[in-house]
Specification:
The protein is of the alpha+beta class and about 450 residues long. It is about 45% helix and about 20% strand. It has 12 helices and 11 strands. Strand 5 and strand 6 form a beta hairpin. Helix 2 runs antiparallel to helix 3. It starts with 9 loop residues before the first helix and ends with a helix.
Length: about 450
Amino acid sequence: MRHTIRPGCPRTRAFLSHRTASPPAARQYGQALIFGMFLLVIVAVLTFYQFSTGQVTTARMRLVNATDAAAYSAGLWRARAFNYYAYSNRAIIFNEVAIAQTATLNSYAGFMTLVTQRVRNYTRLIPGLGKFIESAYQVVNHLNQALHIMSAVEVAGRSAYIHALAASQDAIWSTTNAFVLNQLTNEVMRKTDESFHGYLIRGTLGEGMTRNYSKDDRSRLKDLVQRSLDEYSTNRSIDINLWALNKYFRWRGQTEMIRDHDTNDLDRWQAYDTLSIHERRGRLFGSMRERHVIGWSGVEIAKDPKQSMDRLSLQASSQKTDNGRAYRRIDRSGFWSTGTYLGLPSVRDLDEKSKAMQENSRFPTDKVTVIGVIKKKNTINTADQTGLGAGRLKLKDSFADFRGDAAMVAMSSAQVYFRRPPGGNERVEYASMYSPYWQVRLVGVDEHERGMVGALGTLWR
């Protein structure tokens, strides 16, 4: 039944009040707004959480990369120091060989001068030949004197350079200790981020892979120098057999480093040349003996010159004893000496008693381990740190304010090892401080070092 709405009608007022008090269910509003508010809060929380997680992950990646760079830099510095030892040791050997060759040249020049002088004495009265030999003697004698002056200057310069190289090894070694490398690692970390700090773990560096070889320990360096000499310097012996005359011409010569008579130090180079005629006691089977001395010469380059040749003894080499009569005459004439030599230097080499050498004597390795930390407060820009949210909606996280010693830690290890570069000779070469093939690479951190992370506070408190 329809009702016509009329103003002022009682039935109309009743009808309108009934419709207002009981609206139909299809026209109710407000439930979706409450659900949307809850959904918005959840989305905001997830967004803030994802933002904070991303900031923490980014910080961790940057910390790990910075720690790797710091460990690699520390290992690289150690490898460069080892290679510097190798280069400087090779330079020392080269200059010692040059000094030995200078002794050889002076001995040969003195020998030729003395032989020419003796020939001049026998040919003085022969027309033509006497004047020629006299002119030759004057030329050889003046050249020999000039050579003595130049050799003294050269030996002084080379010897000073050798000892400067040896001193530079000690200077480089002083920059590879734990304190200096700790400063290096920390500097690399701080260049990445001011809030990063790097610490070198004590006990993983400075195992004593190298040491300074001095005094009697220089025997190895002496042997290396001696083996590096040319064949003419080490042995210039020549035998000429005159079967028809039953005679032998024997030329003996040698350059070697010998120990000092008094201190027994390796501070003396000696070179000599002798020439004698030998004859057999019997016509065919008799022993040979030195009959006539033709020429002799000797050179001494020493820190403390003795002004004499090394004495003949039971330990003397056959090079000296074959022409013993000629060798003994060197001290009386044909001898030259210089005291500008500073002696065989002390050098750095692998320490055979070190832990690394005992574990692997052929290919020892050195290792550095670095701990990287974020220690500064309010560093990572998480939702809490940036001030997002307030009141009950403020999101607290554990990275906004660091209360411990370190909130985030990373560890990295670098290994210094010896290996020939790829593409070169494939022959096997063992590790030494005479070949500059020391390299560095990142390696895994062992369990013992990981256990030290729990006691980080002891590293810097």
